[in-house]
Design brief:
The protein is an all-alpha fold and 322 residues long. Helix content is 75%, strand content 0%.
Amino acid sequence: MSVIQLLRRTYTLSADQMKAALLGALSFFGLAYTAVWVAHLFRTRGHWAGGIGMPMWPQLGIGFLTNFMDTLGIGSFAPTTAIYKLLHLIPDDLIPGTINAGGVLPVIVEAFIFIATIVVDLRTLASMIGAAVLGAWFGAGMVCHWPKRRIQIGLGLALLVASLLTLGAQLHWYPAGGSSLGLTGIRLWIAVGCNFIFAAFMQLGVGLYAPCMILVYLLGMSPRAAFPIMMGSCAFLMPVGSYRFLRSGRYSAKAALGLTTGGIPAILLAAYLVRSLPLGTIRWLVFFVALYAAMMLLRSAWSETSNQAKAPKTADAGPQPA
């Protein structure tokens, strides 16, 4: 069944049936991805360090920290990318695949919690999820074949965008949203088109949360409605995009396992126990760290370009006379 057919069938269901269908599909995606990933890990065992010499417990700590922030709506992609870059944990070209592959199961847990507990128009939610899945498929198909330098540039620019969006949230550059729980007409089509684009760029390692949240606010929806929309979108799109990274081998399995294993307990803690945190302070920290990591990635890409420019000159010099 195609995504279009699934959406058409979903639109004919009642609200309770639609929520049950979404949660059932979410469970299926989680189980299917787990089976595929476990099978891939067994096939490639002995070759999955991805250049990491760090023991497993710091990887678990990174997964816990970044997914804790993710559940609070800050996002995990920019902080995770920044930590990997600043600590030189994995090669730059493996970062997008690692974050996507390791984030699938934690974000599915997030989405299950928020779709089940927060009221939102389910037709709007299903439409934006369908667009995100299609965007992830096309985006991952491109990124998983990109050379290292292009990924460095893409990640650097993505982190710059993420840092600016974080800064905008801090300085209140965009509205705080309205009270609507759903969209219709042209506003729904705008949301669907934008979510397709956000999902495609997410395969580079730029998080969907910040742009999706801003979009929801600008279209007049309730800020609370943003949580099931952005988390549900990621939960359905990430298994699709991550499958292509698994097939290509462009990710670090050890780091991805750390994100998954450390992330799920953090999500449960943040969703059910945490009631207040200094989110403003955390966002400032994310802004500066993401900005610095973006500069480092772009500098690395510039160094790659300089080295490539020098290499032909040496090769063209030809044999020297005796």
